Amino acid sequence: xxxxxxxxxxxxxxxxxxxxxxxxxxxxxxxxxxxxxxxxxxxxxxxxxxxxxxxxxxxxxxxxxxxxxxxxxxxxxxxxxxxxxxxxxxxxxxxxxxxxxxxxxxxxxxxxxxxxxxxxxxxxxxxxxxxxxxxxxxxxxxxxxxxxxxxxxxxxxxxxxxxxxxxxxxxxxxxxxxxxxxxxxxxxxxxxxxxxxxxxxxxxxxxxxxxxxxxxxxxxxxxxxxxxxxxxx
Length: 233
Prior knowledge:
The chain is mainly alpha-helical. It has two domains: 1-50; 63-231, no CATH class. Helix content is 77%, strand content 0%. It has helices at residues 2-50, 57-83, 98-104, 109-130, 134-144, 158-168, 172-196, 205-231. The radius of gyration is 34 Å and the shape is flat.
């Protein structure tokens, strides 16, 4: 009986150590399996993070892609209005150039002119929407405060009065001209877009709303893409 008890006492620690050893290896194996499963998930997560992190390569790609697609969509209206071209896309159009036409389009000089004009319009519109950064506006404000203006001179020649007036309104012509240029580009984009695709040519309210939404989307896609691309730099 004593030998039996001693044998059982000796076997129990061995069984416990053996059980712990098996559990340890099972745990390692399970961890390896989970890590292997997590590799593609982690990889996809890191890729998605690149597209939402400001300043990353992903946001630059998204911005550039959005700017290119928006410019291409907007160039369709310019292509139709200024160069009397066949619509490049089939949406809300009675006819379009077709897939074969897209193969010959890169060899058409007017297509590249329309694309260049569209890119210029998108950039100018994006600049007018973006405005100035706070630090830039503050710097210009602080610089302008150093120029004090005295009272209007009296008893002097007309040239003195004219120069005083020039000094008083210095810099304002550029501001007014910038606003006029921005307004011109917006009106130009609006005109070419709606002349190329007139939503009021339809009678179905759904088609009218759809065409309106498509027109405004083509106008804003390039500006949004350009703004994202600029912010990612």
